[in-house]
Amino acid sequence: MEASLPRSKYEEDVFINNHTSVWGSWWKDHQWGYKCCKQTIRNSYCTGSAGIEATEAAADLMRANITRKEAAEEMPAPVEEKRLATWGTEVPDDLVLDEKKLSESLKKEDERRREEKDERKRKYNVKWNDEVTAEDMEAYRMKRIHHDDPMKDFLN
């Protein structure tokens, strides 16, 4: 009599999609994969040694990009001195302002503050002007309310 081998309800050693190893025969970075092509995607097609080389090349490229980005972040970007003088909180001593333009900017700032109080009067299609001059910034600095100023309540 021939002895029959007990059969399992699970399929064993079934190679799918041209793989030469089974799923779970390889482990890396907390992921299971195929040993033959080192892929961690379950039902992917086997790429063999070409796939291993491509994966390593992609990883090397990723590392090179990361180191290049870190090196670029370490180098400070050049800062324009004129922009700091215009937009900074400290007014430089050598800042020269045109008195005529400054008086016009003060009038525009007063008008802007009046329009700002009642937003219902603002039109739907507002055209913003994002070109700000040094005189406009100085007018804003002069007209703004300083919260640490003890006389701020007397301005209103």
Automatic annotation (TrEMBL):
Keywords: mRNA processing, mRNA splicing, Nucleus, Spliceosome
Family: Belongs to the SLU7 family.
Tagged with keyword Nucleus: yes
Subunit structure: Associated with the spliceosome.
Bias kind Basic and acidic residues: ranges: 98-121
GO MF terms held by the record: pre-mRNA 3'-splice site binding
Name of the protein this chain belongs to: Pre-mRNA-splicing factor SLU7
Disordered: region residues: 98-127
